[in-house]
Amino acid sequence: MTAGSPPAIFRGERAREVVTPEGVPIRFTLALVGDRLGAFLLDVVVIVGALLAVLVPLLWLLAKDAIDGDLVGAVLLLGLFLVRTFYFTFFELTWQGQTPGKRRMGIRAVDARGGPLRAEAIIARNLTREVEVLLPLTVLFGGEWVFPGAPGLARLAAVAWALLFGFLPLFNRDRRRVGDLVAGTVVVRQPEAILLEDLTRRAPARAAEPPRFTDAQLDVYGIYELQTLEQVLRQRTPERPEVLEAVAAKIRAKIGWTDPGPAEPFLEAFYAALRGRLERRLLFGKRRETKHDRPD
Amino acid sequence: MALELKSASFRAERESSWRDLERLVATVERRGVRALSANDLSRLPVLYRAALSSLSVARAISLDRNVLDYLESLSARAYLAVYGSRRHLREALSDFFGRSFPGAVRAHRWQVLLAFGLIALGALTGFALTLKDVERFYAFVEPALAQGRGPTSSTESLREVLYDRTGLAQALTSFAMFLFGHNARIGLFAFAVGFAGAVPAALLMFANGLALGAFAALYHSRGLSLDLWGWILPHGVTEFTAVALCGAGGIALGQALVFPGRDERLASLAARGRAAGVMAIGAVVLFFLAGLVEGIFRQLVHSVPVRYAVAAASAALWTSYFLLAGRRGP
C-alpha cells in the first residue's frame, strides 16, 4: 500500500500492476464489483430499450393489421439473438474495452498481462456471459425445465454450482469473472488524476526569510508523514484552518519549535524542507518510509 | 530561496510534455484515435514513452504524491490509448475470417475431431437404441425439437414435415427460431460450460448426437431415410460443424484447466480461451448460415438430388475453408 493516498482499504480498493511492453509497471485500480454490476445493468437497460424501439412500431403496425404476427415474432427473436450475442463484443471492440454501461460507470477492460487488448480476448470474455448470467437465471427460475423430477438436494447443488459462476468475481483477488479468466483480462477503473501545483513552489513566495530547520528536527518524520502532510495541505474542506492549526501545533511540539506564527506558511516551509531532506537521502539510496524507520 | 528541489525542477522541465500528452489522450478517449491529426498521431507514442520514463524517474527521486499519482494515471491512460484495441471494425472482420478463425480451427483439429466423434458416437447409439425400442425416442428428443413428431405419427405426416411449403414470413420465423433453437443454444452453451472442465461439453456433444440418431431411427423404421437426410444435411453439415466447433472450444477450455502444461493454470486458460472464443464466435456465424439454409432454402427446394448436392457442396466448402484459408501471412 502506498502512503499518502486516502486509505485504500476503507474504500474497498485494490490495485493491480500491469507491466507495459516497455517494461514499466503501471498500477490500475480494480473496478468495484458494484460498479461492474451497475455497468452490466445499464447495458441491459440499453439492450431492452433498443429492442423496445424496434418492437413498438412493429406492434403498432400489427394493431393496424398491416403485418403478420409471425413476422413480428421473427424480427423480435432475431433482434434478441443479435443483440445478445454481439452487443458487448461490438462495443468493446470499437470503444476500446468499454460498453455504454462501462463508460458511464468509468470502468474498462484491459489485458491482465499488459499487452494490447486483442479482439480475440474481447470475443472470448463476452461469450461466457451465457454461462454466467443465463445459466444461473435458468436454474433459479426455470429449474423444472432444466431437470424435471430431480430431488430437492440435487437441485440445490445445481443452483449452488450455477451461482458459483455468476459470483466468481467475489471470490478472487482480482475480481475476475469467468470471462476475464478465459480471456486473460481484468476490469479496472478508468484512471484519472489532476496535476496540482507543486507545494514547494509556494513556500518561498510567501516568506521572504523562510524558517530554517535543523537536520535533527527534520529527521523526526519519514515519507508516510510527508505525504500525509501533503494531503492535509492540499485538502479543500471547510474545516481546513482548524486542521492546519492542529497539525502545526503537533509538529511544533514534536520538533521543539518555539517561534509562533500562522500555521499555513509554517507547514508549507516544513513540508518543503522535509521533502528536500528526504529526497536528497533518497538519491543516496536511503528510503525512510515512516517515522518508525531509523534515520541512520 | 536556499536551493530548488531536484524533483521540483524535474517537474518544471517535463510538465509541458505531460500536459501535451494529457490533451492528446483526452481527445482519443472522447473521439477515438481518428480524431487526431497526423502530426499528433505521430507524437502520441513518443510522448507516451516520455511519460513512462518520467514515471520511472519520479518513482526514484520524487516524494510528491500528487505528481506520482498524476504520472501513474497519465501513463495508464496513454497506455490504454496506445495499446487499446482500436482497429477498424472492417479490418478486424477481414482478419477474423481470413486468418484467425480458420487458424484457430486448425490449431484445435484434434478437439474438433473429438467433438465430431462424440456427436457421431451419440448418433449411432441413439440410432441403435431407438431402432430396438421406438419408445426411447421420447427419452432422447426434447418435445420442442420433435415438433409433434414421434413414434405415433403416421408415415404420411412424418413425410409432410420434410416437404413443407410455407410463405416467406414463416420462413423468416423458422430462421429466427432456429437461432434460438436447440443446436445454437447447445453450441454456445457447450463453449461456456467448458470452463467447468471438459466433461459437460463432451456430454452435450454426445446428447446432441443421441437426438439426431433417434430421429434417424424413427424415419428409418418408416423407410424415409433418404428423404430425412436430404432434409437434414443441407443445413446440417454447417450446423453440426458449428456445434462441433463450439464443443471443441469447450473441450479446449476444460483441457487448459485440467492439463495446463508448462504454463500456470490461469495463463493457459487465458491463452486457450482466446483461441476457443474465436472458434465459438465463428460457429455463431455458421449457425447463421445454417439458419438461412434451413429457413429459406429448404422451404423452397424440394428436389432430393438438389438437396444432397447442396449438402455436398457445403461440406466441401467448409473442409477447404478450414484446411486452406489463411495459411500464409503472419
Describe the 3D structure.
The complex is a heterodimer of chains A (296) and B (330). Chain A has 296 residues and is mainly alpha-helical. Chain A has 2 domains: 12-189, no CATH class; 199-283, no CATH class. Chain A has helices at 33-63, 69-94, 100-105, 119-127, 129-141, 143-146, 152-166, 178-183, 202-206, 215-218, 223-234, 240-255, 263-283, and strands at 15-19, 25-29, 107-111, 185-189. Chain A has a two-stranded antiparallel sheet with strand order 1-2. Chain A has a two-stranded antiparallel ribbon with strand order 3-4. In chain A, a hairpin with a 5-residue loop joins strand 1 and strand 2 (25-29). In chain A, helix 1 packs antiparallel against helix 2 and helix 11 packs antiparallel against helix 13 (263-283). Mean pLDDT of chain A is 80; it is low at 1-11. Chain B is mostly helical. Chain B has 2 domains: 6-86; 90-324, no CATH class. The radius of gyration of chain B is 28 Å and the shape is elongated.
Q: Which range does the strand content of chain A fall in?
A: 5-15%
Rg over CA atoms of chain B:
28 Å
Globally, the shape of chain B reads elongated
Q: What is the mean predicted local confidence, pLDDT of chain B?
A: 82
Low-confidence stretches of chain B: none
List the helices and strands and how they pair.
The complex is a heterodimer of chains A (296) and B (330).
Chain A: E1 15-19, E2 25-29, H1 33-63, H2 69-94, H3 100-105, E3 107-111, H4 119-127, H5 129-141, H6 143-146, H7 152-166, H8 178-183, E4 185-189, H9 202-206, H10 215-218, H11 223-234, H12 240-255, H13 263-283
Antiparallel strand pairs in A: 1-2, 3-4
Helix pairs in contact in A: 1-2, 2-4, 5-7, 11-13, 12-13
Chain B: H1 6-31, H2 38-61, H3 65-83, H4 89-107, H5 109-132, H6 137-140, H7 143-146, H8 155-162, H9 168-180, H10 182-193, H11 198-221, H12 225-258, H13 265-300, H14 304-324
Could you give a short description of this structure?
The complex is a heterodimer of chains A (296) and B (330). Chain A has 296 residues and is mainly alpha-helical. Helix content of chain A is 57%, strand content 7%.
